[in-house]
From TrEMBL:
<feature type="domain" description="Fucosyltransferase N-terminal">
    <location>
        <begin position="82"/>
        <end position="179"/>
    </location>
</feature>
<dbReference type="GO" id="GO:0000139">
    <property type="term" value="C:Golgi membrane"/>
</dbReference>
<dbReference type="InterPro" id="IPR038577">
    <property type="entry name" value="GT10-like_C_sf"/>
</dbReference>
<comment type="pathway">
    <text>Protein modification; protein glycosylation.</text>
</comment>
<feature type="domain" description="Fucosyltransferase C-terminal">
    <location>
        <begin position="214"/>
        <end position="397"/>
    </location>
</feature>
<comment type="similarity">
    <text>Belongs to the glycosyltransferase 10 family.</text>
</comment>
<dbReference type="InterPro" id="IPR055270">
    <property type="entry name" value="Glyco_tran_10_C"/>
</dbReference>
<dbReference type="GO" id="GO:0050714">
    <property type="term" value="P:positive regulation of protein secretion"/>
</dbReference>
<protein>
    <recommendedName>
        <fullName>GDP-fucose protein O-fucosyltransferase</fullName>
        <ecNumber>2.4.1.-</ecNumber>
    </recommendedName>
</protein>
<keyword id="KW-0472">Membrane</keyword>
<keyword id="KW-0256">Endoplasmic reticulum</keyword>
<keyword id="KW-0328">Glycosyltransferase</keyword>
<dbReference type="GO" id="GO:0046922">
    <property type="term" value="F:peptide-O-fucosyltransferase activity"/>
</dbReference>
<dbReference type="InterPro" id="IPR001503">
    <property type="entry name" value="Glyco_trans_10"/>
</dbReference>
<dbReference type="GO" id="GO:0005789">
    <property type="term" value="C:endoplasmic reticulum membrane"/>
</dbReference>
<feature type="transmembrane region" description="Helical">
    <location>
        <begin position="9"/>
        <end position="30"/>
    </location>
</feature>
<dbReference type="InterPro" id="IPR031481">
    <property type="entry name" value="Glyco_tran_10_N"/>
</dbReference>
Length: 480
C-alpha cells in the first residue's frame, strides 16, 4: 500500500515538474518572439533600415529562440494552423502567435508548404515575385497580401488579375481588409502639438533670408512627375530645395545624412517656412505619407499633391493647399504670393492647429480604431495585426467546418490596391525630364498589366511554372 502511494506521489511530482517545464519553455518562446518583433518594427516603421538589416536583427534573436523551441516546434506545427510567410520579411523561422483566443504558427520556412496544417500564405508586396509561387494552391490555401509601400514597388500587383488572387489584404487603401492609410501618422496629438510651430511674426522676419516655399526630396523623378511640376513652379516663385532633387540650397553639414531626416534640428529648419511642397512619389487614392503629416506637425502649410481623395483625410477643411485646384503652377505661385503678404489669410490655414480643433471625423475614427501603433512599442505593429487578422479568419473557417458549415469566403477586390497610370505634367515650356516618365514609369506600368494577365493565367493553371514560361506568356500578350 505504502509503496503504491509513494509511486503515485512520485508520478504526480514528475508530471507537475514536466508541466511546469513546458509552461516555462512556452513562455520563453512567446517572450522571445515578442521582443524580436518590437525590434523589427521600430526599424521598419521609421523606414530608415533596409530589409536585410531588419532580417539581421531578427536572426540574432532567433538563434536564441531556436535553442528552446526546436523540439516543441514539431508538436506545435501539428496542432495549430500554419501561416507561412512567402517572404523573409519577419525573419521568424517559427513562432506561436496568440491572436485573441486563437493560436497560429507563423513561419518563413518554405518546407512547410506541403504540410497539411498550412492554411495560409502571407505575401509581402515589395518582394512578391513570380518565381516559385506556392503552387499548386489547394482549396484551403488562403493567400494574404501585406503591401504598405508605394506602387513604385511592384506595379504588377496593382491590377485586377493579380490583386484578386488574394483573399486577405492590408494596404494603404481604405477599402482593404486592414487599411494602413494612416501608417505614417503616430497619433492625433502630434499634429495638434505646437511644439515646433514658429510664430508668424518670426516667419515674416525670416522671409528676408528664406523662400516662402521649401522642397526636400531626394528620390528624384518618381512616377508622380513631381519634379517637373516643382521645376515649373520655381520659375514663378522662389523655392528653397534642400534635397538632391532640384537642389539649390544646402542643409547644415550635420543634417546631410538622410538618416537624420527625423532629427529635431531638421524639423526646426523646415518649421521656419510658411509652406512646404508635400508631393507624393505616386498618385493613388489613399496613398498618403509623412510628406503630408510632417508639415501639419510643424505648423507649416502643406502644398499637397498625391492622393486624389486627400480631403477625406485632412484635419480640417482649411489645412492644406491642393495643387490640383490650380490650373497651372503659375496660378499656384500667384496664390501663395498672395497668402505670403496677407497674414490673416495665411493664418486661416493654421487655425485648426492653434485651436486644436480637428473636425475630420474620418481621420479621428481611423486613428482611434486602428489596432496598431506607429513608432510605439506599447502597441502592436501592423504586421502583428495583419498576421492575427488572417489567423482569426482561418480559425473561423476551421470552426465552421467542424460545425458542418461552409467556409466564409474572403476575396480581395480591385480597389484594395489600385493606381491609375502615371501621367506627365504638360506645360508649355519644353521639359527635359519628362523622359524619365515617358521612358520608364509609363512603359513599366503598361508592361505590368501584361505581367498581371500572364500571372493570373499561370496561377489559374495551378501548376508551378518557371520564370521562362512566365516571360514567354508576357511576350505573347505583347504581340497579341
Ligand atoms: C468641410 O466642410 C463641409 C461643408 O461645410 C462639411 O460638410 C465637412 O464635414 C467639412 N470637412 C471637414 C473635414 O471638416
Ligand atoms: C481564396 O481565394 C481563392 C481564389 O479566389 C478562392 O478559390 C477561395 O475560395 C478563397 N478562400 C476563402 C477562404 O475565401
Ligand atoms: C515543380 O515542382 C516540382 C516538385 O517540387 C519540381 O520537381 C519541378 O521541377 C517544378 N517545376 C517547375 C516548372 O518549376
Amino acid at each position: 500500500m505504502i509503496r503504491i502511494g509513494r509511486k503515485r506521489l512520485w508520478a504526480s511530482f514528475f508530471c507537475f515538474t514536466a508541466f511546469f517545464f513546458l509552461l516555462v519553455t512556452l513562455q520563453v518562446v512567446l517572450e522571445l518572439g515578442k521582443s524580436e518583433r518590437k525590434i523589427k518594427v521600430s526599424s521598419l516603421q521609421d523606414g530608415s533600415l533596409k530589409l536585410e538589416e531588419q532580417q539581421k536583427h531578427a536572426y540574432q534573436f532567433f538563434n536564441k529562440q531556436e535553442l528552446y523551441s526546436n523540439t516543441r516546434r514539431v508538436l506545435d506545427a501539428d496542432r495549430y494552423p500554419i501561416l507561412l510567410w512567402w517572404s523573409p520579411l519577419t525573419g521568424e523561422t517559427g513562432r506561436l502567435g496568440q491572436c485573441g483566443q486563437d493560436v497560429c504558427f507563423f513561419t518563413i520556412k518554405r518546407t512547410y508548404q506541403h504540410n497539411h496544417m498550412t492554411k495560409a500564405f502571407l505575401f509581402y508586396g515589395t518582394d512578391f515575385n513570380i518565381d516559385s509561387l506556392p503552387l499548386p494552391r489547394k482549396r484551403h490555401h488562403d493567400w494574404a497580401l501585406f503591401h504598405e509601400e508605394s506602387p513604385k514597388n511592384n506595379y504588377k500587383l496593382f491590377h485586377k488579375p493579380t490583386i484578386t488572387l488574394f483573399n486577405h489584404t492590408a494596404t494603404f487603401s481604405r477599402h482593404s481588409h486592414l487599411p494602413l492609410t494612416t501608417q505614417y501618422l503616430e497619433g492625433i496629438e502630434v499634429i495638434k502639438s505646437l511644439r515646433y510651430m514658429v510664430p508668424l511674426q518670426k516667419k515674416n522676419s525670416l522671409r528676408k533670408g528664406l523662400a516662402p516655399l521649401v522642397y526636400v526630396q531626394s528620390d528624384c523623378d518618381p512616377p508622380s512627375d513631381r519634379d517637373s511640376y516643382v521645376r515649373e513652379l520655381m520659375s514663378y516663385i522662389q523655392v528653397d530645395a534642400y534635397g538632391e532633387c532640384l537642389h539649390n540650397r544646402d542643409l547644415p553639414q550635420h543634417l546631410k545624412n538622410p538618416a537624420s531626416m527625423d532629427d529635431g534640428n531638421f524639423y526646426r529648419i523646415l518649421a521656419q517656412y510658411k509652406f512646404i511642397l508635400a508631393f507624393e512619389n505616386a498618385v493613388c487614392e489613399d496613398y498618403i505619407t509623412e510628406k503630408l503629416w510632417r508639415p501639419l506637425k510643424l505648423g507649416v502649410v502643406p502644398v499637397y499633391y498625391g492622393s486624389p481623395s486627400i480631403t477625406d483625410w485632412l484635419p480640417s477643411n482649411k489645412s492644406a493647399i491642393l495643387v490640383t485646384r490650380f490650373s497651372h503652377p503659375r496660378e499656384l505661385a500667384h496664390y501663395i504670393k498672395a497668402l505670403d503678404t496677407n497674414d490673416q489669410e495665411y493664418e486661416a490655414y493654421l487655425e485648426w492647429k492653434v485651436k486644436g480643433a480637428i473636425s475630420n471625423q474620418r481621420l479621428l475614427a481611423a486613428i482611434q480604431e486602428r489596432k496598431w501603433g506607429v513608432q510605439d512599442i506599447t502597441q502592436d505593429n501592423y504586421i502583428d495585426v495583419f498576421e492575427c487578422m488572417v489567423c482569426n479568419r482561418v480559425w473561423e473557417n476551421i470552426r465552421r467546418q467542424e460545425k458542418g458549415l461552409s467556409p466564409r469566403r474572403w476575396n480581395a477586390q480591385v480597389n484594395h490596391l489600385s493606381c491609375p497610370k502615371p501621367e506627365a505634367f504638360l506645360f508649355s515650356s519644353p521639359n527635359i525630364r519628362w523622359t524619365s516618365l515617358q521612358e520608364m514609369w509609363i512603359p513599366s506600368f503598361e508592361q505590368s498589366k501584361k505581367e498581371a494577365q500572364a500571372l493570373r493565367q499561370l496561377v489559374e493553371r495551378n501548376m508551378n511554372f518557371t520564370a521562362q514560361e512566365f516571360w514567354t506568356l508576357v511576350f505573347k500578350e505583347e504581340t497579341r
